[in-house]
Amino acid sequence: MSAPAPGTQQAMRRRNLSLVLHALAEEGSLSRASVAARIGLTRAGVSALVEELLRAGLIVELGRGRPGTVGRPGSALALNDQGPCGIGAEIGVDHLSVCAVDLRGTVRARIAVDAANRGRAPEPVLAELNGLIQQITVEARRAGLEPAGLGVAVPGLVGRDQTVVRAPNLGWQGVDLRPLLTTALPVTVDNEANFGALAELREAEWRDFVHVSAEIGIGAAVVVDGELLRGAHGFAGELGHVPVRPDGPACACGGRGCLEQYAGEEAVLRAVGIAPERAAREHPGPGGRIALLARRSEAGDDAVTRALGDAGEALGIALAGAVNLLDPQAVVLGGALAELAPWVLPRLERELSDRLADPARTVRVTVSRPGAEGPLRGSALRIVQSVLDEPPAAA
Amino acid sequence: MSAPAPGTQQAMRRRNLSLVLHALAEEGSLSRASVAARIGLTRAGVSALVEELLRAGLIVELGRGRPGTVGRPGSALALNDQGPCGIGAEIGVDHLSVCAVDLRGTVRARIAVDAANRGRAPEPVLAELNGLIQQITVEARRAGLEPAGLGVAVPGLVGRDQTVVRAPNLGWQGVDLRPLLTTALPVTVDNEANFGALAELREAEWRDFVHVSAEIGIGAAVVVDGELLRGAHGFAGELGHVPVRPDGPACACGGRGCLEQYAGEEAVLRAVGIAPERAAREHPGPGGRIALLARRSEAGDDAVTRALGDAGEALGIALAGAVNLLDPQAVVLGGALAELAPWVLPRLERELSDRLADPARTVRVTVSRPGAEGPLRGSALRIVQSVLDEPPAAA
User: Does one domain contain both B351 and B381?
Assistant: First the structure.
């Protein structure tokens, strides 16, 4: 949505190369004629673009490959699954994970380890992460891929300059992670909810949605017409601090009655009489406490079922405000919420439908397709996206 | 934010013509060399574009005009104030107004009449409006302008298909105004808050803001990177129905404790013991009740001052949610709120600063520059904008 670039011949050519790549990303494979019809250029124009993309190793011709016959007009084209790839890394409160995703969006290598990162200094966390990134980079190269960049997902506020402004559940404040990374790749640091939404965007039919993401805290990403809404400082999507009951319990942010005080993991644990610190010790790792809550509710523990319902109600109130403001096509529950959906959804949906300014409006409430994997996959997809948006020139 | 148009030569030329017009709209006047530097094209390229725009009557050369010498490289260029213009119309609950705005953004003709439109059928309202539009069209032509389109501002939800889905304070529901308009101009119908934000955008330094607008109801427009966020159905910005106290009074929308129940004009009147219907009779016309409240508070009426403070608190709670979600640069108070700012602002600002997820973040709270004139001026500016975005070809 920024000011359009001036229309020089070179800018136009780069834009058209990108249009071809995006057409293939959406459709999987297309003939030259279909690409031309889809993006509104002539067959001849598309053929020249295709030649350049083949030379750059960004696309391939499918079918029985006949060497030396590139450019056969009828053959199907696809993004190259032996070309550039994105490396994604997620720093969780209780885990670290890294993956490689090829241009077609397929996860080609993945590693995850439990890690007690709460209150741990950035240096040792990043030292451990560097090792994992190195492993995945080697694996990706072995599979014929060439890493084009690294995306790093963080559970906290990330500024427009990519500094981690505040990651309360890690205890980090004002940290620039980039000097702590040993990779030579270009790095993009962002909030995990934003990356999660990118993964959802790749798989879902929605182009306008609010992607709610819960690990320990509650965040959200707002997607408008297929683009992340970042905000003036990069802090958009702080759903966890939308006031639900303005005179409610004090929140670490300085406010009162924020959504996180009703629907955050710790609030739900406290509501059923479990000390969050003890739960973290006894049920460590990503999703440990969430699995505990799901098991108890499945086993008929009414207190847990009630607490999850109350969390759903609070989410519904906060989301009613968000939907009235943003008018999205859908609300998508990601992260831990995806697993708790059976208990959270009914009261969430009731609040939402009672509180929409136009009762005729429809907003779908769904569970994220990539689920808890979203932020990790999205951090690699961001790199893939940047290759498709600004294709590197042929060597 | 939609998919980029394919880069054909023709599309590129039209985009470049638009870039020249927008550069002049922002700067007032520029030499050819300054235009070239600003938009990143060559001097020769810009000269050709300028010739076309001069021929189309969209721009003029300033300075002592020497007939037959168009194209002198050093002379300053500006948008033509004798060229196309936008006609804007506002349907208020208690007034109708129409204006003409030239390409430079100057209001060149304006008419406004009191009108008791609450509960009045669309047909007689539009019949009256048609007469006013006709008058302003004649005046604009007399001033050497050529109307290029008509924008119509409505206090209610307007769908993406431009139907008035619901304008509760007029009592309209599912009305297509276009068949009721007698003008031959292309028509754009939109919510008054959206048009108000356009007027603000033209005058303010912000590109990311929430523009709160209050006449009888409370609406808002969300502007992201200089563009209106419209929402999947066109209903974005329904700030008036953001829950402030989820168990609060029932609202006409079906929800409870919506912002409008605390900060809408009728809620404030009731809080100080004035029956809204009686106030409407005794203080009719646009701003009648608002002026009454301002006068009473100025005269030391504590109950009124308290009620306006309470409205400010409710606005602050709802806006805290909006700011946490959207991270705008600024919150702009428009419409009636602009006039009540001295009593509304202090508690609004306190709530907002107490409830932001990142205390280090700054959000400016300001009063709209065009104020109550915003929706009317914005409805004409929308037409001007469309001329700048897609300049008509030279005859």
Answer: no
